[in-house]
Amino acid sequence: MHFHRNGNDLIATQLAFRDYLRAYSKEALAYEAVKQAAASAHPENSLAYNDHKSDWIRACQQRAKAWADSR
User: At how many degrees (to 10) do helices 25-41 and 46-69 cross?
Assistant: First the structure.
C-alpha cells in the first residue's frame, strides 16, 4: 500500500501499475514470482527485499505507463 499527497505524480504511476497488472495476468504472475524470489532471498531484510524487486517494478511501471497512455 502506498500513501501520497493529492497531486503527487506517483499516484498516476501506481494506478497505472495496478490497472496494468489487472489487465495482464502474465505480468501479475511475473510480479508474484519476483516477489517470491525476493522474499526467499531476503527473508529478514525488508530493504534488500525491496531492492531485489525494484528493477523489475520500474520496468513494469514503464510498460504500464505506455499502456495507460495508449488507452
Answer: 170
